[in-house]
Amino acid sequence: MVGVDVRIDPLDERGLAELLDAAVAGADPGEVMPAWPGAVWDDRLRSGFLAFHRRRSLGPDPVERTWVVRVDGRAAGAVRLEPGPDGTEFGIWLARGARGRGAGTAAVRLLTATAGPGSGGPLVARTTASNVAALGLLRALGARWAPGGEGAVALPTGTVDHVQRRGPGHGVGPTD
């Protein structure tokens, strides 16, 4: 991660507008929100992105906490924490221009250092078996496959308890 400055800032309305710009410029809709296969950015999806994050993170009863990932001072993606029955789920996505530079790993380390899991339970992640970047990020954090577990990995640090396969638009998305 030489030469890459990464920080995370709590999501607010200004950050949400910057996050939308980063998503439109560098991610497919299904990578950053629930969307149909082959969806392309248009006014409807832009409004949907804003509504999705306002409802989940900025509304009166948020279901998750979200932070804007800034790479070299610019919004480049998001990390989030959502309490659940199996622990606190974390998710991340990065715009294409920020991928492959170690920013995802740095952002998750910042997330766990500043926010912690929040529920006292394990920090969990969900991704698809085909998401090589997300699996690479989890391995960079110390994850290893657990025998007999469908997609399960464990981190020696205890920051990530397991990974389960999940569809796009949720969990650990395109990273590093």
TrEMBL record:
Residues 6-167 form the N-acetyltransferase domain. SUPFAM superfamilies: Acyl-CoA N-acyltransferases (Nat). InterPro entries: Acyl_CoA_acyltransferase, GNAT_dom. Pfam families: Acetyltransf_1. Transmembrane segments: none annotated. It comes from the Bacteria. This is N-acetyltransferase domain-containing protein.
